[in-house]
Amino acid sequence: MKIIVQKFGGTSVANSKKIRRAAERVIDAIERGYKVVVVASARGKLTDELIADARKLNPNPPAREMDQLLSTGEIQTVALFAMALEHMGHGAISFTGGQIQMVTDNDHSKARIKSIDTMRMREELESGKVVLVAGFQGVDESGNITTLGRGGSDTSAVALAAALEAEECEIYTDVDGIYTTDPRKFKRAVKMEQISYDEMLELASLGAGVMHSRAIEFGKKYNVRIHVRSSSENKNGTLITHEVPQMEEVLVSGATIEKEMAKLSLIGVANKPGNAAKIFAHLAHAKVIVNDIVQTEVSTKKANLSFTTSTSDLAAAKKAIEDIKEEIECENVFVRDDIAEISVVGVGMRSHYGVAEKLFGALSKAKVNIDSITTSEIRISCIVDDHQGEMALEAVCVAFELDKPVAERSK
Amino acid sequence: MKIIVQKFGGTSVANSKKIRRAAERVIDAIERGYKVVVVASARGKLTDELIADARKLNPNPPAREMDQLLSTGEIQTVALFAMALEHMGHGAISFTGGQIQMVTDNDHSKARIKSIDTMRMREELESGKVVLVAGFQGVDESGNITTLGRGGSDTSAVALAAALEAEECEIYTDVDGIYTTDPRKFKRAVKMEQISYDEMLELASLGAGVMHSRAIEFGKKYNVRIHVRSSSENKNGTLITHEVPQMEEVLVSGATIEKEMAKLSLIGVANKPGNAAKIFAHLAHAKVIVNDIVQTEVSTKKANLSFTTSTSDLAAAKKAIEDIKEEIECENVFVRDDIAEISVVGVGMRSHYGVAEKLFGALSKAKVNIDSITTSEIRISCIVDDHQGEMALEAVCVAFELDKPVAERSK
Description:
Chain A is of the alpha/beta class.
């Protein structure tokens, strides 16, 4: 049985017309010879509306009840989607997370999938029906409804593709694939034909987020081919897949910019065990999301520690640091809220020299000042002045030829 | 464990304010020493909106998917209701029909309850929580979601009360109880303190429908005290219960009028086996709801047969009869669409003479012409001219003293 999983996000099923258009994508796949499993999100803004309804009754609603409430949005979509397919001449059956035994842990609002029972789905697929599964939701071992958190429907889809050994998991969205950089920031960005899970993970965590990183991690772990494509037109998008040799020939696959960043530098912190842990525990408690961290020793007893966060978390971060400033013996705190982060990502970096040189060269030529640098195995990020951000991104994109298809770039 | 089941209809939970008010009724019961199980319907007009969404995609949606879709409305209500209770300081947990194993047959959109697993509910009640159950829904033995049809939440509530051996099942609604007749038609109608299941069944089927007849049948079968009361004020309503001796002292408990009725009289139909079956099979096929049927023999070979229906079904009924007129050898068809039906109901009729005499006397004194008469063991109905309907109802109510509490009526 040749199975394909197709996932449609909330904007792709927001109204009857869009549901019918999504159903056409399903019928295309049937005509290509596939048995189709559809995963869908709640329609349009429904989830936000339900959250608002809940907060009117309880500003801090119990997570179990919130999951019970929110799970209904996706159930509505798949039932309606099944009706549309039936009307278009294709047998279809919809399931809740519970009905296919998508079993998760009981960590409500951010549950993790433990197992999926594929028997019922396989039966229905074999009988010729399209199987539709409400995304974002599961059940714990006591039958309580759980939800998988942000990007949960992507995770449902990839997990189902893994469990059903599907040939591909198609993620339908309102963009037609993954671009070398955000086309709103750099007009000449080009669509990638393929990208590795690791590159996509770096890009997802850097805010290029067409897909949530948990879904990509799942895909990597279970070797699921993920195809990100447009729900409004029937053409190939970008394939997220395992690294293949030709990927390594490309130095840099994509570049990103993150704006509205802030950097806090803690000067002269006592360099003793537990201080860093104390700082970041305090920040986590204040719900500050920390991006990059850099620490440098300035003497045997003192270190400078800096970290970046979004400007929206800056006030909370400043307060959190102020509270423990004495305890960690911090001499001074410098804050910058006028910065942006430019990153380049590529698995080719692992085996090629010269990426850093080329990056810094491009920034230097564009007269962009670099505040600080962090790296991972397949990523280099630079903090630059916010007002130079777009210019910096463009310089980097041009340097790494991100405005050209891979085949046309210089070797 | 002293358990009470409280059911809130869609208008009683239409918005946050109303959900909070309903939650106050729950807290009242907790303070009266009860463990409380709440059954709730979908908020306001949500079910109608979902049906409209479905029809846009499929004018004739598959019943299984329709049930899957509609079941979400009630789940939303109970989750929100639980959040409200938590915020008001009372532990609460909501369940779908499936989560408490409300098992039904698989007759989608009008499923019948087969069994309920009370274990989980009992555990939660014992731990001090309010248990909230989504009304109107169950699951079949394969885990497909089913719905119980019109008035389904009433049925869920009464069935839960039976399964949990609750002391009472309270049906909260926008009226404060059952009246001797419709107060909009006869201003001096009085609220009944109690009424028997059988009387309520006759009244429900006659359109006085505060509650659906299936729920009342369930209550009768499993001996559940049903208390119909107002969701907006905390005072006693009407108790629906088994017949008690004093009920028999009352000749007539209530009276009803059904307007917008039509009567078709089939004259000179061949009086042979199978003809009546043929007629009503044909009407059922045309989805005509038939009320009363009267047949009289006019010769050894011929009979006159008449039946009533609502004026909205008249066109379909006329067409259905026209189609088989020759086959049943019907000589002529007379149609009246200017009639109303007046009925009086009372278990006292079983053991008392004179109800018919009193009824016909009252109508005669009011100069109301009686077209035809039908009876059951505890009901007498008369077809009268539509324009005399309200006058006839008033005459009947006065004759049977339905404007006075039972204790004040003449013996």
